[in-house]
Amino acid sequence: MLYAVKTLLSALIILLATELSKRSTALAAFILALPLVSTIALCWIYIESKDINKVAAISADTFWYALPTLPMFLLMPLMLRNGFNFYVTLLACCITTAALMSLTQLLMSKP
Question: Which parts of the chain have pLDDT scores under 70?
């Protein structure tokens, strides 16, 4: 039952953002920029484990992994506004993000 609630809640957030984008791109972007997924996941982790140290560690790691995702939000509009195909742009953004995530992982694993 808990899995169904988690799935439904996640789907509703995505639905909300996509429906809001039809009325206001700024409002949809605001919803997407909120750390809703992280917050909900941290709540579920705490509810299931009651382990505040685990929640704290995941929260701190999430901060560092959020940073390499930010360039995607600059690269995508730049490429799209310069005539690149959406799927080519999306692929470039995914590759860039994956490379930056790998670099972040490498830097975080250094003692």
Answer: 111
